Amino acid sequence: MASILDEYEDSQNTRKSAQRNSRLSNTNIGIPHTGFVNVRLEEEKPIFNKQRVDFTPPEKINHLVVCNNQLCMNLGKDSLLRIDLTKPDQRNQIELGRKDDSTVHRLFLDPTGSHLLIGLSTRECLYLNRNTQKVRSLSRWRGHLIECVGWNKQFGNETNTGPILVGTSQGAIFEAEISAAEGSLFNTNPDQYFRQVHSLEEDGNPAPVCCLEVERGLENKDYIIATTRKRLFQFVGKVAEGSEQQCFSSIFSQNQDQLPSFQEFPANMGYSEITFYTSKLRTLPKAFAWMMGNGVLYGQLDFVRPNSLLSDVQVWEYTSDIDISVNKPISIVLTQFHFLLLLHDRVKAICTLNGEVVYEDVFPDKSGTLKKMIRDPVGGLVWIYTERAVFRYHVQREARDVWQMYMSMNRFDLAKEYCRDRPECMDMVLAKEAEHCFQNKRYLESAKCYALTQKYFEEIALKFIEAKEEEALKEFLLKKLSNLKQNERTQVTLLVTWLSELYLNRLGQLESDGNTVIIRETREEFRNFLSNPKHKECLYNNRSTIYDLLASHGNVDDMVYFSVVMEDYERVISHYCQHDDYSAALGVLSKHCDPKLFYKFSPVLMQHIPKKVVDAWVQMGKRLDPKKLIPALMNYSQRGSSQQINETIRYIEFCVYELTVTEEAIHNYLLSLYAKYKPDSLLWYLEQAGTQPSEIHYDLKYALRLCSEHGYLQACVLVYRIMELYEEAVDLALQVDVDLAKSCADLPEDDEELQKKLWLKIARHVVQEEKDVKKAMNCLSSCNLLKIEDILPFFPDFVTIDHFKEAICGSLEEYNQHIDELKQEMEEATESAKRIRQDIQEMRNKYGVVDSQEKCASCDFPLLSRPFYLFLCGHMFHSDCLFQEVTPQLSAYKQARLEELQKKLAATAQASKSRHRPVPKDEGDAASIGKGSAVSSREQIKSDIDDIVASECVYCGELMIKSIDKPFIDPEKFEEEKSSWL
What we know:
Blueprint: E1 8-10, H1 17-20, E2 48-53, E3 61-67, E4 70-75, E5 79-84, E6 91-95, E7 104-109, E8 115-120, E9 125-129, E10 136-137, E11 146-150, E12 164-168, E13 172-178, E14 191-199, E15 201-202, E16 205-206, E17 211-216, E18 221-227, E19 231-238, H2 248-254, E20 261-264, E21 273-277, E22 287-291, E23 295-301, E24 310-317, E25 331-334, E26 338-342, E27 346-351, E28 357-362, E29 372-375, E30 382-385, E31 390-395, H3 402-408, H4 412-417, H5 423-439, H6 443-451, H7 457-466, H8 470-483, H9 489-513, H10 516-530, H11 536-541, H12 543-552, H13 556-565, H14 569-578, H15 582-592, H16 595-608, H17 610-620, H18 630-634, H19 641-658, H20 664-677, H21 679-688, H22 700-709, H23 713-722, H24 726-733, H25 738-745, H26 752-770, H27 773-782, H28 788-791, H29 805-844, E32 868-870, E33 876-878, H30 879-886, H31 892-915, H32 924-949, H33 958-962, H34 974-980
Antiparallel strand pairs: 1-2, 2-31, 3-4, 4-5, 5-6, 7-8, 8-9, 9-10, 11-12, 12-13, 13-14, 15-16, 17-18, 18-19, 19-20, 21-22, 22-23, 23-24, 25-26, 26-27, 27-28, 29-30, 30-31, 32-33
Helix pairs in contact: 5-6, 6-8, 8-9, 9-10, 9-12, 13-14, 14-15, 14-16, 15-16, 16-17, 17-19, 19-20, 20-21, 20-22, 21-23, 22-23, 23-24, 24-25, 24-26, 25-26, 26-27, 31-32
């Protein structure tokens, strides 16, 4: 046989009309107001997709259970088939081995799929573990017809069920435990214990237990739900600490003193069935559905409530085509949003949100009578079986249309939760929510929702404008603005401008009302809007528009704030200056330290708060250019000019002495201020500024003119000295102080003639103006250049020689001494000339011996082969080799001179050859005379050439020393030389 579960065939997939009614209409094609295109390109698969398992049972199927991908079915009378759905080809068939007439009453499979209980019609119970092939009898269970089992989801495992609850047809509830491990020698039964813990009744009589469910909630509190045919019981209790795993008997004992909590319905169809929905294995169930006589009781499970699990309970009555007296529902299965009812020939799916039938599937007669419907809590598949076939339903995207139902119920939060991945549906939900809020006059909430939709912007804005809800309109625009992208600049500009206008209107209205608290909050909100970094680019690009809006509303404070946000400090400072708040303007300047703004506003501020302005300048230090502050420094005002001048001098002194500014304009201005207002500081400044023109940063001519205009003669003398105009300095100093003139006269140390001239000026002034002979003689002693005869003409005729006796005698003695020194120098010069003549004579008679084996120091060839030169140092060179060595070392002038001499020597040689020809006799005397003169000229040329070439050894003389910094290879020939070595 082929695979049982891998291959399927579709059955009656055309019955989808009921499900389609709850979905979006396929006729909604095009672009609606939302902006989304709602076109279904292909048919959506149904939520419940039925597939028939490709399996033909050898015998009729009596019972079937599925859990955790483990499927067990009872075939015929005594056969049990087990299939692991992960390995569908590996089937396992077991014979129960019953010889009597007993049949299988029910099968029970635990959530792990490991423990199978087989209830027999003869009030016996068998046990089969997934890992064994042996069916074992539960002896303690004998005598009870098992109707339901409440499995332990907390402590059950593959080898042990943990404490479980068992319900019987007589209304008794037992607590039991089964272990798959082999028993001891004296105890071979798998059932560990089996004891009754409670019994259920209806109308005073025992009632069969139809269903049992056990759950553990928060704080280890256990919840037990038991149902009979028309009652639903709840038992809530907490197991005592230290008890072994879970002891259900203690929970029932806690409820014995009071009647158990139950719900009862009048109708009775002989049985009931309860089902739970759990999203994941080993998690608490979220909802329940109880199929009983009146209909289906549906609700949520709330484990937080103290005494009852059930919440939001409602009854869905059976439809008119279900008559419990004739056509009773067989089984019920609960999914996330639907419960499925199994009838004798069909399956109905009812939505738990609105109670509508969304799916109905009729089974053909050939499939047989429908027997049972089961849901695997692990895989989520729904299984239905007949005597001859097995079907299963895939539940696909069950929540895809739930949003519509929640939306129609105005439960918008849930609707949005279930369409997060579908923007077109989310937009419809938001639009519906916005409209709902608008109709209920919840305008702010409506605005927030409208801003998230794709509906036409103008339409929504007009709605709020017509309703005169500016706050809602503002909220809508803010939300819309936050959702825009940075590249949508036009839209951003529109919204930012509009919002600014709305804020300003609101502030204007509030100011007229006088509510200061709301004004403060609104202004803070407006300023937060203006300072939002997301809007900064837009606000900066459109700042002129915002300024116009602020100005039109007369909102000066917010205009200043906006200027600060835009870093438009010029506007802020201008505003403060216009309102005579100069300290605030200076505060903005000092805070942001923009030099350009300092240059622009300092002239105005200097007129009113000079001290504070200068303090700010000093704090800025080198970040300010003092030259650009000169207009502010020179902008005197009539009031308080003395304070401004003092502060101006303070700042320029700071620039000169602290910042060491060298700008000539600054130093000249300081000079002018000193000359006008602080003359005591003028001379000190000139003295410390330096005595050399290169050290001085002010204009000397300007300083001279300034000092001259104000009559500061001593300062003028100092400037003349720096300018090296010593005559003018002395002339002016004589008007002030003779000692000052003397100090000026000593300055030209390198020019004795000028120095003597200056001292003569001083002497004349002393003699002629002061008529003080003693002072004149002191001048004579102060300067060594002056003689008594130099100053005698200055004295008047009536002065007797007695006043100059000592000076004249001293002068004559100096003359005699000077004559003696000259005689001695002449004798020394004569002796030196005599020694030089002797040395020359000795050099003429000096000679050297050259061996025949000697070689040229340059070319290394025998020396005697060509004319040569011999030097005192011992080096010997051929004449042509010496020329080659020396010529490159000569200067350009000497090279030209040498070339000229060589040409002259060649010309004299040519002339000498021509003279060797025979000549007439009468011309002989003249030729001999010309020959003599030619020889003498030739010798002179050779001598001149020798002076240039052979004046010193090329290896030992000055030429070699001068060539020490020259490279061995000429840079122009370096590349050529380099390539020759490769």
